[in-house]
Amino acid sequence: MRFASHTEKNITHYKKAPFLGVWDFVLLLALIFAATVALKYYIEPETGSVCTVYVDGEKVIETDLLTDSVTAIPGTHAVLTIKDGAAAITENDCPNKICMKTGFVGRAGGTIVCAPNKIVVKISGGGYFVTGVHK
Amino acid sequence: MKISAKKIAVTALLCALSMMLGVVESLLPPVIPALPFVRIGLGNAVIGLAVIILGAPYAITISVIKSVAVPLIVGNPIMAIYSLAGGVSSAVLTAILIDIRKISLPVTGILSATLHNLMQLTVAALMTSTAEVFSLSVPLFLFGAIAGFGTGTVQYLLIKALPEKALRL
Ligand SMILES: [Zn+2]
To answer: Could you give the ipTM of this predicted complex?
Structure first.
């Protein structure tokens, strides 16, 4: 166990170590840069074009956001409404109705979750917004 | 490596503390409602301290026990997969970063929290077969980084405040 012998040196080192050193500032700057770039893409995502509904992890509906529709979500008492390029859960029998209070979601990456009924509605952009990186 | 009774006692103490923090955290609402098993990892705050005063093998042991025990205590066995992936990988990174003694504890906390979240999201992506989970993750990473900085600062202050006699086991 090579690491174990390090404890003596570690205690001495961290007893005296400054709150932030040179390496820390370099790393912090890099992290702040990465966070800024990530936030920019997170705040300004593409308008979504596809709406996917999962019930208990299984995909039950995949539809585009361009055509208005009202659909019952299979296996639940919930209703999915698509209107003006956005989707909402407009009817549900869950206790707190958080999913319905979320309202209409139309941005890529947007989600509506109904935890009690295990429904997840996900909005994605048609190939423009994949795994958080613009293509 | 000498295994003293004192070391075992402190290991048990830190293990209990990290489990307690883990249970408390699981009672709080999840950061990403869509991914309820993804957690910031408050229980991992103890790991950095364990690496310094006990050594990496002890710290990683604590992390493994905590990652399995907390999900069983709160009745969420599936959570163990997330906890193990996030907790153990970040414990190993914490051990490496602390042992090279180049960066400070708060920044070590940020990096460990980031790896913790990255591993949890990777598990989520594999389990749900949806890579989109990463697009939900920006607030999680920011939240985790701030929490990691916070826990690292607590570790920094503890090491400074505790008498050297108490630290050398
Ligand atoms: Zn609901």
So the answer is: 0.82
What is the fold of B5-167?
Answer: Arp2/3 complex 21 kDa subunit ARPC3 (1.10.1760)
Distance B34 CA to ligand 1 centre (A): 12
Distance of alpha carbon B34 from alpha carbon B120, whole angstroms: 13
Backbone angles phi, psi at B78, to 5 degrees: -65, -30
Is pLDDT above 50 for B76? Answer: yes
Task: At A111, give phi and psi (nearest 5°).
Answer: -140, 150
CB A49 within 8 A of CB A125: yes
pTM here? 0.68
Shortest Cα distance, chain B CAs vs residue A69, angstroms: 24
Quick check: A22 contacting B, CB < 8 Å? no
In tens, the pLDDT along B8-49 reads 999 999 999 999 998 888 888 877 776 676 676 677 779 999
